[in-house]
Write a structure and sequence with these properties.
mainly alpha, binds fe (ii) ion, 0% strand
Length: 296
């Protein structure tokens, strides 16, 4: 029987659900997401492409390796409700969301061969991840909750994207990886409200949204750590002592590793929250414009 947290907790949801259904302000800046076909090169990317820091590199590798299958799950979760979306504008955004996530999955997957050529084979992790997340867990979760998990993950990716595009965290990243990450970041901001709006249209319960966030937070923390450790263990040029030193370095240098995730969590849990309340569509537009890809 699929897991349905909201049904289990129905007795607690009445007042908060009303708050969740109030219409949020829609940003006048919100763009129509645009699908861009990319073909990045990764041939020059060194093993420790994050400024020579092995820990930071494998931290992002551990996230990157989650994307292709994770993004295909996001598309499945939203596609389930495609025929229940009446608003033609949202329909169009949903189709562009499918296209963008498909491109992200493809481009991140193209880095896997390069990693394997450096002795960092992601396949054993990927096999276990797919088995656990999509063969074991996904069928146990009800469709509304799958959509809520997707909307919550989109909040995480949009927040990481905001961080990546607004700060200087990626200054030391190898240019070939930086291009991939910043393009992905910009498109995550472009479509950050799509899954959330589909969720509001098909199931406005605050309890569903909150349940999705709790599951997404647990999954992100667990799977990301697992992915990162799988790379650190394969990397013969690093060890636990070096990792500890590098972890402290990035903790001092920037926001990675601080309590940002907790802040993101609490923000999203607030009744009445909407992704458009974070004013950052211009960040995405300016970046895409600067690389000549604003209009595909
Ligand atoms: Fe994506
Ligand atoms: Fe996304």
């Amino acid at each position: 029987m699929p897991l349905d947290l909201p049904r289990l907790r129905n007795f607690r949801v009445s007042r908060r659900d009303e708050a969740a259904e109030t219409a949020p302000p829609e940003s006048p800046d919100r763009p129509a997401p645009t699908v861009r076909r990319m073909d990045f090169e990764f041939d020059q990317v060194p093993r420790h492409w994050f400024g020579g820091n092995a820990f930071a590199t494998h931290m992002v590798n551990g996230l990157s390796v989650l994307f292709p299958d994770g993004e295909r799950f996001f598309v499945r979760s939203v596609r389930h409700y495609l025929d229940q979306i009446d608003d033609p504008e949202l329909q169009a955004s949903v189709r562009a969301f499918f296209g963008q996530e498909g491109s992200h999955a493809r481009e991140h997957q193209r880095t896997f061969d390069h990693l394997a050529s450096q002795g960092l084979d992601p396949q054993p992790f990927l096999r276990a991840y797919k088995k656990f997340a999509f063969e074991f867990l996904e069928p146990k979760v009800s469709p509304p909750l799958r959509l809520a998990v997707t909307a919550a993950f989109e909040h995480f990716t949009a927040t990481f994207a905001h961080q990546g595009l607004s700060g200087n965290d990626f200054d030391e990243v190898h240019p070939q990886m930086r291009e991939l990450l910043l393009w992905h970041a910009a498109e995550e901001i472009e479509h950050k409200a799509v899954a959330f709006d589909v969720l509001r249209e098909v199931d406005g319960r605050q309890s569903v949204r909150a349940g999705g966030m709790l599951i997404a937070m647990a999954l992100l923390t667990g799977l990301w750590t697992w992915g990162m450790v799988s790379f650190l263990r394969q990397d013969r040029e690093t060890n636990w002592r070096r990792s500890l030193r590098e972890m402290i370095q990035i903790r001092r240098a920037g926001p990675i590793g601080n309590f940002q995730m907790l802040g993101m969590f609490f923000d999203y849990m607030r009744p009445g929250f909407h992704p458009d309340q974070v004013d950052d569509y211009a960040l995405a537009r300016d970046y895409l414009d600067s690389v000549g890809r604003l209009h595909a």
